[in-house]
UniProtKB/TrEMBL annotation:
The chain crosses the membrane at residues 9-27. PANTHER family: HYDROLASE, PUTATIVE (AFU_ORTHOLOGUE AFUA_2G14860)-RELATED (PTHR43798:SF33), MONOACYLGLYCEROL LIPASE (PTHR43798). Residues 67-163 form the AB hydrolase-1 domain. It comes from the Eukaryota. The keyword Transmembrane helix applies. It comes from Xiphophorus couchianus (Monterrey platyfish). GO terms for biological process: acylglycerol catabolic process. Gene3D superfamilies: alpha/beta hydrolase. It is found in: Endoplasmic reticulum membrane. This is Mesoderm specific transcript. Pfam families: Abhydrolase_1 (PF00561).
Amino acid sequence: WQRRERREWWIHVGLICVPLVAVYLHIPAPHLSATLQKWHSAGDFFHFRGKKIFYRDSYGALGSSDVVLLLHGFPTSSYDWNKIWDPLAQRFHRVIALDFLGFGFSDKPRPHRYSIFEQASIVEAMVAHLGLSNQRLNLISHDYGDTVALELLYRSDQNRTGHLNFNSLCLTNGGTMLAFLGLLKDSSILATFLTRLTNFMIFQKGEVFGPYTQPTDAEFWDMWTSLRYNDGNLVLDSILQYINQRFQHRDRWVGALTSTHAPCKWCLGQQSPFWTTTSVTTHSWRIPPVS
């Protein structure tokens, strides 16, 4: 009798929760703020295998021929570089950033098998689109973008067709929504369910910043808005397969970093929770010293 009563209780809970979840999933994405709209308006799109990819390309310092390419992290967008865009434009002739497929203002197809290899090909296609295939490039990457940068470095060192020409590479520490990564990377039903229930409060609590670099609420909201744009929250579990790809292709990407002749540096915030682990890892891999 108690077992039957318990089963009926769960049925009632389900009947209540299912409509609530359905309503939540149909909440429209937030409107773009004026700042985010300005970022969007200043950019452009190119097509990669039928998908629209957003990018920004600004001309800066006169008398310089240096070009810097910025690769953002998970789960945000090129807007991450907003605060340093103008200072970089004062140093470099051109400053370029893109939203990876599934991020920001780029298309977010589903179902889709997102991969680091595809994202690297998108970067190469954008560089060709901008007429920079023969230009030596300075790359600055963060988090997810670090892995894409290592695949690009591997292709460059292997002299693959369409590869980038590296002038320098700067990898910056990252890691976001830490409490969820282990659960979401396995592409299970639970991962699918959790990513669809992720809200602004969970997103804000999950992001990792130093004590002196905390974004304002408005900046957090802009990050969340860019994630929700075009239902980006519905592809998070697919994109997170990159964590498994990091393990599967570790030798390929670590090998590229340890054998390249291109100048490479790590830039790590000492207040970051990744400071100690990354310092030990880079030392054991004989990677150039942390900056």
